[in-house]
């Protein structure tokens, strides 16, 4: 007979320690592992960054992780879980995790399946607080979450059935992902061949020979907090560039007056903006959409000569050949920075304007042909994941009272 019970009736909860009780200056090079959010999010109990000595571990025994516990992420990306395996190292949870220990009346794998279902996530999300970063509410509230609980033998039967069913679905999902990856790889190789291969009309040139002007973004001191406004001209930095496009909706903005005072950094249509810090090498063509865009500190403006099609130059800069050269020549320890000298000295194959357009036309045809296949594969993966969710919800509430 199925029962509806509260999680607090079948599990014991321990929320991670307060941040002040586990600071970086307490960590050691080896010792007892500190479990973090990434372990729950990535569903694994390895790859540890931090450790504590025995004395600190003894002080924090209440937060000790044991095999069979379920660890749940509690801040930002919330509700992700991992079952602690027998071989997991001894350690403690940090402040961003919740440790859930199932009692004898509930199978840990049944609990894990429940916590990955919409039956759990819908109840969980109704309790979270926090605007920008969501946080799990108090343990007291979590204990009130309801779960449909059959007898232990039935739980184990359901787990075995879900394991077998999901193994088949996961194999199909994995195949779809491999096929998407293969299509993407095939497309990239075609792009690479068309952009970098030699022809009768090809001339080997340095990237510097293709540019009329190179403008490095302004020093950080050129813009202050007071210069940023809610409505104005977007300041483009590497994080505002994605897949060759400007994602300027989240970019910081400055007034037109401030932009005019630094007019050399206002980009023109057909300029190429390229990231030189952090997300190094990301690039995009400035669109002719009637809007102004300002080059941020983390970027650089490349203004192509009239003998170079900006879209062809973009393809060159986006090629794996150029990316590899930039990565090899990057500078910086904690954050990679683009080496401008390396970029400008990279040798590439350049055609006449007419031949450049021919290459762009070929690339367009290739992408148009492959796009429907990629979309179909992505749709199939989404459908398979939706099927898993539906099966999970159905199995976890069958015959529930």
Give structural notes.
The protein has 401 residues and is of the alpha+beta class. The protein folds into 3 domains: 3-149, Alpha-Beta Complex (Adenine-n6-DNA-methyltransferase TaqI, Chain A, domain 2); 151-179 and 357-401, no CATH class; 203-350, Alpha-Beta Complex (Adenine-n6-DNA-methyltransferase TaqI, Chain A, domain 2), CATH 3.90.220.20. The protein is built from 12 helices and 23 strands. The chain has helices spanning 7-10, 37-41, 54-59, 108-115, 118-125, 139-142, 152-196, 256-261, 310-318, 320-329, 340-345, 353-397; strands spanning 3-6, 11-15, 32-35, 51-52, 64-65, 70-73, 81-83, 91-93, 97-102, 146-149, 203-206, 211-216, 228-229, 233-236, 241-242, 245-246, 253-254, 266-267, 272-275, 283-285, 293-295, 299-304, 347-350. A 5-stranded mixed sheet has the order 13-17-14-21-18. It has a 4-stranded antiparallel sheet with strand order 2-9-6-7. Helix 7 (152-196) runs antiparallel to helix 12 (353-397). The longest helix has 45 residues, at 152-196. It is elongated, with a radius of gyration of 27 Å.
Computed Rg: 27 Å
**What general form does the structure show?**
elongated
Ends apart, CA distance between termini: 8 Å
Helix content: 25-40%
The CATH superfamily of the largest domain turns out to be DNA methylase specificity domains
Poorly predicted runs are: none
Query: Which sheet architecture does the biggest sheet show?
Result: 5 strands, mixed
Spatial arrangement of strands, main beta sheet? 13-17-14-21-18
CATH architecture of the largest domain: Alpha-Beta Complex
Count of helix runs: 12
